[in-house]
Design goal:
Length: 90
């Protein structure tokens, strides 16, 4: 649906999250990039039914993506069990 950038993280809000978001294990396969478009692995967590993505390797993140490889095993779901699909904000 949308994302909002902050000085050291990006918050992602989803449209079809059903009754809420959940993870199956640790959230993985999130990446952040700055203006240079060089993506680095990032940490993700569920906060207030949004995903907060951060990385100490990316200052002032501008772009976020999830599951952007051929071998991704999804870890992000809604509480009804439907998986989030791969996405990129750029």
């Amino acid at each position: 649906k949308s994302h909002k950038t902050f000085s050291n993280y990006i918050d992602i809000d989803f449209e079809n999250k059903g009754s809420g978001l959940m993870s199956k294990g640790a959230l993985k396969d999130f990446e952040l990039a700055g203006d240079n478009m060089i993506y680095k692995k990032a940490k993700a967590e569920i906060i207030d039914n949004k995903i907060r993505v951060s990385s100490n390797k990316v200052n002032n993140p501008k772009h976020v993506r999830y599951g952007w490889t051929n071998w991704t095993v999804g870890t992000l779901f809604n509480k009804e069990g439907l998986p989030a699909s791969s996405f990129s904000s750029d």
